[in-house]
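Subject: Sanity check before I submit

Could someone independently write out the structure tokens for this chain? I want to compare against mine line by line before I put it in a report. The sequence has 494 residues.
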Amino acid sequence: MKFYITTPLYYVNAEPHIGHTYTTVAADCLARFYRMKGYDVFFLTGTDEHGQKIYEAAQKENLTPIELADRVSETFKKMWEKINISYDRFIRTTERQHEEVVKKVFKILLEKGELYKGEYRGFYCVHCESYVNVEDRKNPICPDCKREVREISEISYFLKLSKYQKQLEDLIENSEMVKPDFRKNEILNFIKSGLNDISITRKNVVWGIESPIEEKYTIYVWFDALLNYLSGIGYLHDEELFEKYWPPDVQLIGKDIMRFHYIIWPAVLFALNLPQPKKIFAHGWWVLGKEKISKSKGNVILPQYFIDEYGVDPFRFFLLREIPFGLDGEFSEENFKKRYNSDLVNDFGNLINRTLNLIEMKFNGYVPEGEIDESIMKISEDIYKNYTIKIENLSLSEGIEEIWKLLIFLNKYLDEKAPWREGSIDVEKTLLSVFYGIRNILIFLYPFIPQTCEKMIEMMGLEKNELMCFENINKRYAGRIKIGKREIIFYRKK
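---
Independent answer below. Compare away.
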């Protein structure tokens, strides 16, 4: 079984911010989850490095476009390393292999009659790297980013997008590709309003992939970027790799780039006679008040502060726990701190610390042997079933809620049994059962907070590989286990 997951490529005009990390952490969580289920996973991410916006940004810094791209792409790699992103391939659109695939695809489509030469007249937004419809031609403003746009007229090559209108409608109505489900009507209404053919070359943009035609126009940056999902998995250069993983199982995107991914991208695949992605999931935005968090709004939240203040895994945890994946959510340090103190310090950290302290105090640091309470075994199995359904449906915060049911059960179980009291009965069974339940919590949480789970499993005296497979939730131990050196992982924040 294979699982191919992608993030969008991140534009190199900005450092990694909360929006980039949100998508990438979610993708990493899913990649880890499917590896633990025994799937052969391929996780693709990377940077989008062409276009007029990059050219102009580089000029402002007295850099060449590739110098700017090299620098910013490296910052993305370093950030993904810092927050423990387990990608299999980091692709850059300036790589020779990608550029060759883009040229070959352009040529294939041209030879198949899917492209034609025409003239474009209209308005172009450099910031959004797209043609736009404006309401006021005397004061032309981009409807998306509200910046001034340029009126242009140029010869261009067009993709016959309108040709695929009916196929796109059928695909969206009759498949599970568009997720969450509530996005379907928005996309269908846009398609049914009528699709125009789309220009995929630029006459006056110098920083881009040169098209394989006599005029040598550069290729539209969005057409170039979308093809990374093909080039990054071997299309037209590694047939075995491509056949192994295509089509994508999950493609994660932000809701601001839905039309590119739900309309242009499937149309290109129709034109190439390739299978469509199984699922393209558009998540919501993090907002401050009612404003989207973004560089253009001037309200960017950078991950580094929260990583320094709270740690990598609390940052990952908050992103995936705080709001249902797919909806918008309010980001604030106050919310972050509440979630950190409540879930990680009070519930999670407290349970493991007091359990290991009791094992140290009562049994000299050795986990007692004996029977495990059947109720804990049963709830572990039930939660695994529900948790699996939630994660497979990309209901990530609800997946954590399932884990918390076991955590709350164990805290209550420990309080009721009170093995610290004089005269308590079944102390061995109580602590062994809670130990077993905590081990399962760590397995379930591993896709979300891997570094913390690795530290805690070692504190329990177990090996890291305990975390790598869901089958281990039923594993029992023969012989005594000596718990490891303990430490406080989560400190309360005031």
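---
OP: Matches mine. For the report I'm noting this point. The chain has a mean pLDDT of 92.
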